[in-house]
Structures are given as C-alpha cells and as structure tokens.
Write a structure and sequence with these properties.
By secondary structure, this protein is of the alpha/beta class. It is about 40% helix and about 20% strand. The protein has helices at about 1-15, 25-40, 40-50, 55-80, 120-130, 145-155, 170-175, 190-200, 225-235, 255-270, 290-295, 350-355, 370-380, 415-420, 445-454; strands at about 85, 95-105, 105-110, 135-140, 165, 185, 205-210, 215-220, 250-255, 305, 310, 315, 320, 340-345, 365, 385-390, 400-405, 410, 410-415, 425-430. The strands form 5 sheets. A 7-stranded mixed sheet has the order 10-13-14-9-8-15-16, sandwiched between helices. α2 (about 25-40) crosses α6 and α4 (about 55-80) runs parallel beside α5.
C-alpha cells in the first residue's frame, strides 16, 4: 500500500537526520506523551468501557498506570541508562579503550493485541522511542474506540515521521509485513506470531514475540487455601479472563481440591455478587466470535459454578469446572476467557511428569508454604515468568524482565529492558598507536610469544 511505503520513507529520512539520537529530544517526547495520557484519562475509561466493558479501576491499574509509571522512569533514568559504558581491557587490547554504545535500530514495527490495548501498545512504544527509533504502530481493529483514541493521542504528541499509527485489519497486517523494518515487536497469538516471524525472516529482521499459552496454577496440600483461592479468582477473572498471563488451569493436590473449590466459589460471589452479569467490575468478551469459541469449551457436566451466557451482551459468567483431564477440549488450547478448569494430582512426580510434556507457558504460579518444594518445582518446570503464592504481580514490576520462552515467545521488555530490546549494543574500541602486538605474517617464531601474551 502506497501510504505505508510513503510513511516508512519519511521515517527513514527522519531517522537519518539524527534528531532521535538526541536523548533530550526523546525525553521531551515521552513527557509530552505522559501529559497527553493524563489529560485523556477519562476518555480512556470511556473507550475501554465501550469496547468491552472494562471498569475504570481495571483500566487504570492494568493499562494507564503501567504506561505512565514507565514513562516517569525513563524521564528520571534515560540519560544515565544510555551513557556509553567503558568495559575492562584484556592484555590483547592493551593501550586501547573498549566501550559499549547503545544505538537505535532505526525503524520499528509494533503490532499490538486487543486484550490490553493501551498498555500493550504504548509500553513497547515508550521503549522504542526511548531508544531513539522511529515507530510504526499497528493496534487491534477489535477495539475501535480505544484504537481511535490511541491514534488521536499519538498524533497529538508525535509527527508522523517519528511515530505513525496504521489502522485496519488483516489487509493492513499483510501490507505492513511486506515491508522491511529494523526491528519488529509482536504481541498476540501463536498462529499470527508464526506469520510475523516468517515475514521477519525474509529480511533477517530481529524481533520479539510475546505470545501466550496455558499457564498453570499449582496448589499443593501445604498452601493457604483461602489466600490461594482469592489470588487465583482475581487473576483468572480480571478482564473476564482475557489476559495472556492469567492462570489457564489449576493443578491441585487431590486431598485439598474440595476445599479449594469451596473457597474459589466463595470469592467469585464476593468479588462479583450472586449475579456477575450485573457487576460493574466484570468485563465482557471482546466479540461474538470469541464468545462462541469460549462457550464451545464449556463441559456443563463438570461446571461447579457459573456457565451462564448472554450472547447479545457477550457475557460469560465466571465459570469453574472440576474433574477435568488433559484430554478434555478445554485443555487443548489457551482459553483466554472466564473458564477455569481444575485438575488434580496425587504426587509431585505425577504433577511434574504431566506438566513437563506440555509446551512452555508464559507464566507459572505455585501456591505452597513448603519453600523447598516451591523452589524444586521452579527448577524442574520452565516458564516465561513465575510467582510463588500469588499470580500475575511480576508483570507490574518494571525491574523484572517480561517475556516468553519456547512456545510462549522470546525476547523481553519492561523498564530498562525495553531500552535494551530496542537498542543495538555496539562494541567500539579506540586503539592507541603507542603499542602493537606482533600479530602480522609471517608468523614464524611468534607463536610462543603470543601464547604467553594472550
């Protein structure tokens, strides 16, 4: 598409002009973005409410606050983080100065999803701008009100030569991926992630993939069952379960399953009332296509609580199912909705044997007061991130890297690591002319000396 090609040409020209290399310019742009977000706070509440019923509390905590706090961190630390760093010398590099210089890649493409459209669009954007890149942003078409507001915010702060928003759906995705970029970041499902990776490979473009997977919550017999249930219910049904790091299923020790189920039912009602459909705090499914897919995963013979649906309202109640097996339909794909399957295990060996056969999840949650066991499970079972005795809180800590592993993606970002992700770490050596190693041919008689020297 000609407008995409024209935008990329403008951005390459803007980057070559060198303005984004100025750290002061980057900070000023990020500060303007923060002011714009703070000014439009109520507009974001309204947009996300319109798109899929998110309440203001969830919008602020899981969307705006994370972006704004990230910008403030860059305002404070970016000059220090981007300083050229001197590294130790070796004998071979004697009479020279070795440094690492952080440089922007150039033009970055960010493709973001619909489930947390503000945070998963703007957090990567903040890192890419902080690193000195120009950026093309492709938000999701499934959240039209929020995407329109994101576009309005970006265009208020940035010139198109610096940051451009491309709307549309699959057609625009295809057109974008035909072009060459210097770095790509994609957040979304595995199927589209493979398409993005294939397109990147055509141009040998480095990329970060943030995907998903079936993240387990493991509850052993030593766990505080009340606090565990409270944590799991909150994490699972936040945003109506449409969270890539939500607990996708529970593996609970058989002897404590009934008590855990009882506690989880209690907290579902406490959080959302006897009729969650009337709760102002429970979101809706993004569209009818996803509604139908999630509904098809419910085995009503195994439902402990929930199972209510309203297709016109795209509402599915918080639903818990028991006695689920790995062969059940609900365990064949990431749920990405308000269904919580509960499986049991009888021994740690059985638990680890079953979970090790599954693809590496984006997150894992272990509920146990046995510290040695918790550590052992973390050693045996890989995951992108992990939390002991809680869920999802690692995402909110900008000092921790966030990213997947294996089938859940690769690469990481958040805080300073976003700067690292969107920067090329260039090795630069400044060589003195006062001394030179005897390294030139002919080599006869020089091997003994060079062995001792190096």
């Amino acid at each position: 598409m000609s407008d995409i090609k024209a935008t990329l040409k403008m951005q390459r020209d803007f980057f070559r002009a060198g303005k984004t290399k100025d750290v002061g310019f980057r900070i000023e742009q990020l500060r303007k973005l923060r002011f714009a977000l703070e000014e439009a706070e109520q507009d974001y509440y309204d947009a996300l409410k319109a798109d899929f019923g998110k309440c203001a509390f969830e919008v602020y905590v899981s969307e705006l606050a994370l972006v704004i706090s990230g910008i403030k961190s860059y305002e404070r630390h970016l000059k220090r983080w981007t300083k050229t760093k001197t590294t130790p010398r070796t004998l071979a590099s004697y009479h020279s100065k070795s440094t690492i210089k952080m440089e922007p890649y150039g033009n970055v493409l960010i493709i973001s999803p619909w489930n947390y459209p503000v945070q998963l669009t703007l957090s990567p954007l903040v890192g890419a701008v902080a690193a000195g890149n120009t950026v093309v942003v492709k938000p999701s078409r499934h959240v039209p009100e929020t995407t329109a507001l994101i576009k309005k915010t970006i265009e208020k702060v940035f010139c198109r030569e610096h940051v451009a928003v491309v709307g549309g759906g699959a057609r625009e995705h295809v057109a974008l991926l035909k072009e060459k970029y210097d770095y790509i970041m994609f957040t979304g499902g595995t199927a589209v992630g493979k398409i993005v990776m294939k397109a990147a490979a055509e141009n040998l473009t480095p990329l970060t993939l943030e995907l998903g997977g079936k993240s387990p919550a493991i509850v052993d017999e030593t766990a505080d069952l009340d606090k565990s249930a409270k944590s799991i219910v909150w994490a699972k049904f936040l945003n109506a379960g449409q969270t890539c790091i939500a607990p996708d299923f529970v593996m609970v020790k058989k002897q404590v399953k009934d008590k855990l189920l009882e506690n989880m039912q209690f907290y579902v009602e406490k959080f959302y009332g006897e009729e969650p459909e009337n709760s102002p705090d429970f979101a809706r499914i993004i569209n009818t296509k996803h509604f139908d897919r999630i509904t098809s995963l419910i085995d009503f013979d195994k439902v402990v609580t929930g199972g209510d649906r309203n297709r016109r309202q795209r509402y599915i109640s918080p639903t818990i199912m028991e006695d689920v097996t790995f062969e059940d339909t609900v365990m064949q794909e990431e749920i990405f909705g308000p269904l919580l399957p509960v499986l049991t295990y009888e021994s740690e060996d059985e638990l680890t044997e079953k979970l090790r056969k599954r693809p590496t999840p984006l997150a894992m949650y272990v509920y146990s007061t046995d510290k040695k066991r918790a550590r052992r499970l973390l050693e045996i079972l890989p995951s992108g991130g992990a939390v002991v005795n809680d869920a999802m809180i690692h995402f909110a800590n900008p000092h921790l890297p966030f990213g997947g592993m294996g089938g859940s993606g690769f690469g990481m970002y958040h805080g300073k690591r976003s700067l690292d992700t969107f920067s090329h770490h260039r090795a630069v050596v400044y060589r003195s002319l006062l001394f030179d190693l005897p390294r030139y041919a002919p080599y006869k008689g020089k091997l003994r000396f060079i062995k001792k020297f190096m």
